[in-house]
Design goal:
421 residues; MetI-like fold; extended; MetI-like_sf; transmembrane; transport; membrane; phosphate transmembrane transporter activity
Length: 421
């Protein structure tokens, strides 16, 4: 017996069966990091915001009243805002690091800019509505023209009906020209790239900065002086078309170029031609953006004054015929009324300006309704219509399958008798 066998024999069976206590290693302690909150508003942020605002206001008041000879409301606002940003950055830096501090400060700057723009818009719109309400509250402002009213007449006599009708007719003729032409040109620029399309895009971009008086002078020279037409609403609409066409073309071109190329490729791969792809895929997908382009073009032409003055003249009576005779618009009527020193005429001018804003609002709502929802976004009515159509298709397919189903006991063979070789 060897030494190894002796050592094995010395071991008892119980020692082999019981290996002894098992040592379980302790789990490592994981260090849990605190998540950084990237969204929402915390209580510390609110305290820092209001504390910096109060400190900035106090510091500005101290500088402009006690320590420095500075005066002026605008200077106080600028100094106070700069002091507010600096103090806010200092307060945020007590709890956050550099990137978070810069993020908070830039967020405050962006929100402040948005608030200033919104306040300016509300101030302009509110001021015009308040000043024009004294004339707009009278029914004759909407139903009468200025043929029987002079500058000294009260607001109960005369109105802006002739200007409203003139604006509607001129804008309607202008949109009938620039909407199809602008969309066709945008489709050409986006779907047929090449040397000529680049040249057209350059011309369009140059025309977007064309002064309105130049468009009016061009129509006045070409249509009235050379061809001998009289001043009328049609000439004004043509001048407005020159102003609105490049706006629609450029905006629509940008929208069409944002459509994914995979949609076009999928349509072409299924066998559709290029014009059917544009008509059934590209344009429906870009419909909300095209509606926005039309809104921008309309807003550009509806407020023009100088082209209308050069090509349509000025009239105080209603002229619904756009092919002959002078025809006034709301911007031109506003311009002529506010120049008068009489308070009643100034009120009529502000009323015409408010009516113009309401007209733009109505056109905006109509364009959004006609533009519809984006691609893949269905309204409840569209969803129900599509569900009913799917149910009808399912019933039709089920009926067709039932007609093709063989009768019981009838065995169908893949070949007719006699066809077996």
């Amino acid at each position: 017996m060897t030494a190894v066998d002796l050592r094995k024999s010395d071991l008892r069976k119980s020692d082999l069966d019981d290996p002894g206590p098992t040592v379980v290693p302790e789990p490592a302690v994981r260090r849990v990091e605190r998540r950084r909150q990237v969204g929402g508003v915390r209580r510390a942020d609110v305290y820092a915001l209001f504390g910096a605002a109060a400190a900035g206001f106090s510091l500005t008041a101290l500088l402009f009243t006690q320590l420095t000879p500075f005066t002026g409301v605008l200077g106080a606002l600028v100094v106070g805002y700069v002091a507010f940003l600096v103090l806010y950055a200092l307060l945020v830096s007590l709890d956050e690091r550099g990137p978070a501090v810069r993020d908070r400060v830039m967020s405050v700057v962006v929100h402040s800019a948005g608030f200033v723009l919104l306040a300016a818009l509300l101030l302009v719109v509110g001021y015009v509505l308040v000043r024009g309400w004294t004339a707009m509250r009278h029914l004759n402002f909407w139903t009468e023209d200025m043929s029987l009213a002079g500058p000294l007449e009260p607001l109960t006599i005369g109105g802006a009906l002739h200007a409203i009708v003139g604006t509607l007719e001129q804008v309607a003729i202008c949109l009938a020209i620039i909407v199809p032409a602008g969309l066709l040109c945008a489709v050409f620029l986006s779907e047929l790239p090449g040397r000529f399309s680049r040249f057209v895009r350059t011309i369009v971009e140059a025309m977007t900065a064309l002064p309105s008086i130049v468009a009016g002078l061009f129509i006045f020279l070409a249509l009235i002086l050379i061809l001998g037409f009289e001043k009328c609403g049609l000439a004004a609409a043509l001048a407005l078309s020159i102003m609105g066409l490049p706006i629609i073309v450029r905006a629509a071109d940008v929208v069409l170029r944002l459509i994914p190329g995979t949609l076009r490729e999928a349509s072409l791969a299924l066998g559709a031609s290029q014009w059917r792809t544009v008509w059934h895929v590209v344009l429906p997908t870009a419909r909300p953006g095209l509606a926005t382009a039309i809104i921008l073009g309309t807003a550009r032409v509806v407020g023009e004054t100088s082209p209308v003055l050069l090509t349509a003249g000025f009239a105080t009576s209603l002229n619904a015929n756009s092919l002959s005779g002078p025809q006034v618009s709301l911007p031109l009527f506003t311009f002529d009324s506010v120049r008068s020193p009489e308070p009643s005429m100034i009120a009529r001018g502000f009323g015409a300006g408010a009516a113009l804003m309401l007209l733009v609002l109505v056109l905006f709502v109509l364009a959004r309704i006609l533009g519809g929802r984006g691609a893949g976004q269905l309204s409840r009515r569209q969803w129900r219509r599509r569900a009913r159509r799917s149910a009808r298709d399912a019933d039709r397919f089920a009926a067709r399958d039932a007609d093709r189903r063989p009768e019981p006991g009838h065995l169908e063979s893949p070949t007719e008798p006699g066809e077996l070789a």
